[in-house]
């Protein structure tokens, strides 16, 4: 039975096409974080309250967040007491777009200290070149996220959970990050060709 709420949400959907052919939530999350991001990290204070702060993240080969943070940071002090954390990743805002219509992923699990490989460090610095100024400091250390589960939201009506196995075995989509400018180019310079293809 369809409720009024279902009908309202359906009217708000902007998805076009066969949603069954869409990438999985894990693939969409991997795509969102593949090139790194400035994430919101929630840790627990000494009295158990959520404490949220920004941190640059990159991801390892399994698509899991990696951070390089100072021992002086409040979120690091919190992690020394409790490893429980969540990481919210979302794209930069788009002019004129409803921010709730944009995709985002929340990772739920624990951070653990680890020794990054040269490839991990190179990937992190590729995403955040300014981090080269501090990654070698004595008070900065590396932490890797141990994912329990992930919540992906792709805008109105597109949302679901993914397991750590789903994320580890998923691949980032190479087309989605560059799709918007390609569509603009096709619409601007190849409108007749697009009409021919559609027909």
The profile of the biggest β sheet is: 6 strands, antiparallel, barrel
Task: Tally the beta strands.
Answer: 7
Class inferred from helices and paired strands? alpha+beta
Helix content: 25-40%
Count of helical stretches? 7
Low-confidence stretches: none
Give the termini distance in whole angstroms.
Answer: 37 Å
> What is the element string, with H for helices and E for strands?
HHEEEHEEHEEHHH
Rounded to the nearest angstrom, the radius of gyration is 19 Å
Any idea what the shape is? elongated
Rounded mean pLDDT is 87
| Beta-strand share of residues | 25-35%
**Strand ordering within the main sheet:** 1-2-3-6-5-4
What does it look like?
- The chain is α+β, with helices and mostly antiparallel strands and 199 residues long.
- 32% of the residues lie in helices and 30% in strands.
- The chain contains seven helices and seven strands.
- It has helices at residues 4-12, 25-33, 74-81, 118-127, 164-169, 176-189, 191-198, and strands at 37-44, 50-59, 65-70, 84-89, 104-113, 140-153, 159-163.
- It has a six-stranded antiparallel β-barrel with strand order 1-2-3-6-5-4.
- The longest helix has 14 residues, at 176-189.
- The model has no long low-confidence stretch (mean pLDDT 87).
